[in-house]
């Protein structure tokens, strides 16, 4: 079966597509070119029924650029369940048991239910994320994606001009703090010290402008903090209106790939006593967005 790429739905034909006719473990160079062209257009790609292991996922992901390490996970070293190349997007401990409701790692992971862009809290943010569903709950646990290109285009010229030169501080200390999670070690506070990112970015290939929003934003440089947070909240409410959002209902062995440069995403709630095990590989954007 040849590679097929079909838009999801008819209401927004440039946001979200399904990719079939491919086993990503055997993707050809031509497949990679076609996929990169598709993600430049659709931003979110769904690959159904990809029965892969972590190594196959990593090899496929690495064909799109240099890879990140999973340094944003709360569990490191001997506490990790997965290799450092794989982000552990689950509610499981290192022995595969479901975490207790008040477990520190679970509470930290609740931050994934806030709108965010992966690794915006790193000085070099993420390009693509690839998330493989290994175990899914009976219901809930969807992932929603918001199109930051559409959100930018819908702003007035006055609003765009106000946003264009703003610089924001991003940190996981901010996003988790918004939920009341402040159980950080001194080492973690240093590791996740705020980094600076532009509020508006331009895609290097398509040249499309988009908002660079995330729950990791704590303030805007040279703005009073309360005013900055209200401004970011207003922009986020605008950017996540229903007409800009695509919801993916997971099936086991789905692989979803998205472009963090033009999207935000969030997980939705599910029964915390059921296992939800997704493995994420992350392609780095390769360069800082702002000069040091």
SSE map:
Layout: E1 4-7, E2 17-20, H1 29-42, E3 44-47, H2 54-62, E4 87-90, H3 104-109, E5 126-135, E6 143-147, H4 148-153, H5 157-163, E7 167-170, H6 172-177, H7 186-191, E8 195-198, E9 200-202, E10 209-211, E11 217-220, H8 225-239, E12 245-248, E13 255-259, E14 263-267, E15 277-284
Parallel strand pairs: 2-3
Antiparallel strand pairs: 1-2, 3-13, 4-15, 5-13, 5-15, 6-12, 6-14, 7-8, 7-11, 9-10
What's the pLDDT, averaged over the residues?
Answer: 97
Radius of gyration: 18 Å
The level-1 CATH class = Alpha Beta
Strand order of the largest sheet: 1-2-3-13-5-15-4
**Helix- and strand-based class?**
alpha+beta
Order of helices and strands: EEHEHEHEEHHEHHEEEEHEEEE
Overall number of strands: 15
Q: How big a fraction of the residues is strand?
A: 15-25%
Low-confidence stretches: none
Detailed description of the structure:
- The protein is built from 8 helices and 15 strands.
- It has 292 residues and is α+β, with helices and mostly antiparallel strands.
- A 7-stranded mixed β-sheet has the order 1-2-3-13-5-15-4, with helices on one face.
- The chain is globular, with a radius of gyration of 18 Å.
